Structures are given as structure tokens and as C-alpha cells.
Amino acid sequence: MRRIILDTYEDVCRAAADVYTEQLKEKPNSVLGLATGSTPIGLYDELVRRYDAGALDFSKARSFNLDEYYPIKKDHPQSYNYFMRKHLFDKINISKYSLPNGEAADAEAECLRYDVEISDAGGIDLMLLGIGHNGHIGFNEPAVSYPMGTTHVELAKSSVDANSRFFGLDETQPTEALTMGIGEIMRCKKIILLITGEGKAEIAMKLFERKIHTDIPACFLKLHPDTTVFLDRAAARDIIVFEEALKRERIKAVQEWTGLRG
Ligand code: F6R
Q1: For residue 171, pLDDT beyond 90
Q2: How far apart are CA 236 and CA 167, in angstroms?
Q3: In the annotation, is 152 catalytic?
Q4: What is the band of 261 on the pLDDT scale with cuts at 50, 70, 90?
Q5: Is the pLDDT reported for residue 107 higher than 80?
Q6: Is 141 a catalytic residue?
Q7: Residue of 81, 87, 115, 136 with catalytic role
Q8: What per-residue confidence (pLDDT) applies to 262?
Q9: Has 163 been annotated as catalytic?
């Protein structure tokens, strides 16, 4: 798992847009994996800017989103389908986009259908991920075991609380979702994970400990052959403090050792 720390949120969005630009240049008919939430909004704005400037063409590409609330109508302003149309799909020329269907009558059948659709498309070339404060990716919440394929899940209370900011007081917030499983995510050929803002500093620090915490779903990405994590300095705050302290300790140890030897 590679790590790139950049100064600001805007730098992270531009770097992530560079990865998408490169991907589409190399393979115009790429299968793109996309996420929702606050983090990728700046990336989507940047992709739209590049598309408007004629620097990006999505006409041969198609996409799959990580997850969708369940049950939810496609046109509900808080549905991920609505979010994606608003921030990206209605503004670019993507040939086809898919999300798990939050309107499906049978959630389990919809999960299987979604997996088949991804597999028929040849799998995902480049996947975009954000991370929850509890380490979730997609809606794979901390658990003892994790699903391979798309699954109907109950959201952790912390995730419901974190997303409540998007729902009005009079709106019912879904507490269930359909999400790609950890296995599905691990099958993506290339992954980028964006971690931004001070609120994510603690989970970013845990993710980069030299351990696989099985209760931090994002830790599975350490086993993926081509994952890059982009962080801004705010999210990397604890990592920077820790590594600077470590460096000072090492310098002190070397100085003591060479002093003793001298
Ligand atoms: C969104 C998703 C979630 C978010 C995560 C971070 O499709 O699957 O895992 O990436 O909850 O959300 P934000 O970016 O709002 O902090």
C-alpha cells in the first residue's frame, strides 16, 4: 500500500484526478469504480473541469459505484444514485453507470445481480475509496468476518451518525445499505483511497500501523497489490508527528552510539 501525503484537500483531488486521467488515456474503455461521501466531491469537480476543458473523455468508459442505501428511491436527494448524477454523471459523457439498486424488491437478489453485472463488464480497473471514521470501506463495517461479494448490510451506528448531517430532521435516514464486499474490492485491479481532513487523522494513523487490524476493514488494502493512499496533511497529522518523533529517537540513538564509540 503506497502512501502519498500532499499539502491540501485540493492537492489530493488533483492527484486523484491525474490517476483517472492517466487511466482513461491508457484504456479509454476502462471500468471505473466510484464512491460517494464528502471526500470525492472535489475530485468529481476536478474531473468535470477537465472534461469541460476537453482534456478528458468518458464516452467509452463505464462505472460501478461501491454502495447505495437500502431501501431508497433513485430520485431521493440523499440516494447515492442522485448524488452521483448531481456531482458527476449529468456533467460528463460517461457511456454507462451502475449502482446497486436501492429500489429492488429483493435486496439479496439485487446483490447477486450486481456482482454478475460487474463480472460481465470484466471487473473494475480503477476503484476509488473513501474511509469511515471506524475504518469502513464501502459499507463494510468493522466485523468478525467480511463479505466477498455485494451484500445487504446494516450500517454501524457511528456511520449512521456520521451521515446524519446529510438528512433533514423530517427525513427518515436509512440504516441499511447494499455494498460491494471486501472480496469485490480486493479484485479491483488498481485502487486509490483518499483520506482528508483532521477528523480522519486517528483512523489514518491506525491504518498505517505495521499491523493488520481485523476490525479495521481498510486494513485489507495492505494485502492488495496496487493500492495508493492519498492523504492531505490534516489527515496525516498523527502520522507526521509519530514519524518525526521516531526520526528524532533514531538520530539520538545514533548520536549516543557514535558518541560512545568515539
Ligand atoms: C461512500 C462510501 C463510504 C465513504 C466513507 C467516507 O460510497 O462507501 O465508505 O467513503 O464513509 O465518507 P466521507 O467522505 O463523507 O467522509
Answers
A1: no
A2: 29
A3: no
A4: low
A5: yes
A6: yes
A7: 136
A8: 55
A9: no
Cβ of 150 closer than 6 Å to ligand 1, yes or no, is: no
What's the gap in Å between 245 CA and the centre of ligand 1? 31
Cα–ligand 1 centroid distance for 138 (angstroms): 7
Q: What global pTM score does this model have?
A: 0.95
- 258 alpha carbon – ligand 1 mean position (Å): 49
**pLDDT attached to residue 148:** 97
Q: Exactly one of 141, 152, 163, 232 is catalytic; which is it?
A: 141
Distance in Å from the first CA to the final CA of the chain: 40
Q: What DSSP string describes 151-194? A: EEEEPPHHHHHHHGGGS-TTSPPP-EEEE--HHHHHTSSEEEEE
Angle between helices 9-26 and 41-52 (to 10 degrees): 50
